[in-house]
Design the sequence.
């Protein structure tokens, strides 16, 4: 079991780490510097939040709305922690270090293991390999993105929408989620002409709150 | 201001992770919290798709980015991996701008 855990975890790590290059290129295309882009991958280290931050800033949104959107997306890692925490059962420095590696992929590769040892191994190998490769490819993508000039020429502005769609796509399998997605799109586009950049996306988060409240007892 | 957003939100996202592995599950494990937290990524990411593709500043626009998004949909239906979807969307928009 241990060998297959390591092999599977490394596979996920390589696949995920590679698309750090698209983040790096999109981030500098949105107007962030190479150091800012790299610090994001090192410090924030959670893909959807990183894409959201540069997306909102690139669209002219304020630092505050960009940070708020990124952190709202980061709340799902808190829920992952609730499941992964007891599996790892670490304390102190080890827990503080492991928390940094808490992302979609490391959670997925630890909660489905047969033993606590395998769960820890899956978490560490997946989280560690994604961290190393995600940061390496962020740097390569950012330097490459800087070298190519106007990002629009290469369709990098269109790549941002594609990236967000690919991130949300696996979740659009239930009717409830599809309805929430459509309402969020409607709210956001409706607010674009009348609010400051960054606000439409945050307001769409209210759709999630409303849908959660209204669906009380039905699930 | 960009640095403030980068560092502030970076630290914030780490603290959200740390909170998850530190607090007793009973504190946050409530049906409403779980439901809303599950829906937040769906709502925010969908809104980000729409705003990134169909707006320019405060104007709603329909340009090459929409064709890029259509390409992304097609590639996702065909179960293409993330990187292929992103590059495909960029490529279609870039080629249309050349034409």
Sequence:
């Amino acid at each position: 079991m241990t060998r297959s855990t390591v092999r599977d975890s490394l596979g996920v790590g390589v696949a995920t780490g590679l698309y750090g290059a698209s983040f790096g290129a999109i981030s500098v295309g949105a107007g962030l510097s190479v150091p800012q882009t790299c610090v994001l991958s090192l410090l924030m280290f959670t893909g959807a939040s990183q894409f959201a931050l540069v997306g909102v800033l690139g669209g002219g949104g304020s630092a505050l709305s960009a940070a708020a959107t990124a952190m709202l997306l980061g709340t799902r890692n808190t829920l992952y922690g609730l499941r992964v925490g007891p599996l790892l059962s670490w304390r102190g420095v080890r827990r503080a270090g492991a928390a940094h590696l808490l992302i979609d992929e490391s959670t997925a590769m630890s909660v489905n293991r047969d033993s606590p040892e395998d769960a820890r191994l899956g978490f560490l190998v997946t989280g560690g390999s994604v961290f190393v490769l995600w940061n390496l490819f962020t740097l390569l993508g950012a330097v490459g993105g800087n070298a190519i000039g106007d990002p629009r020429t290469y369709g990098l502005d269109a790549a941002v929408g594609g990236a967000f769609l690919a991130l949300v796509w696996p979740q659009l399998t239930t009717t409830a989620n599809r309805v929430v997605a459509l309402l969020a799109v409607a709210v956001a586009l409706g607010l674009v002409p009348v609010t400051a950049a960054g606000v439409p996306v945050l307001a769409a988060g209210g759709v999630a709150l409303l849908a959660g409240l209204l669906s009380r007892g039905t699930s | 201001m960009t640095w403030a957003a980068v560092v502030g939100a970076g630290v914030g996202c780490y603290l959200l992770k740390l909170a998850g592995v530190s607090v007793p599950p009973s504190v946050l494990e409530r049906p409403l919290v779980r439901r809303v937290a599950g829906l937040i990524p769906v709502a925010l990411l969908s809104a980000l798709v729409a705003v990134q593709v169909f707006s320019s500043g405060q104007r709603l626009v329909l340009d090459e980015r929409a064709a890029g998004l259509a390409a992304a949909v097609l590639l996702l239906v065909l179960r293409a991996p993330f990187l292929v979807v992103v590059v495909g969307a960029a490529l279609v928009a870039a080629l249309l701008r050349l034409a």
Notes: Chain A touches chain B through 101 residues (CB under 8 Å).
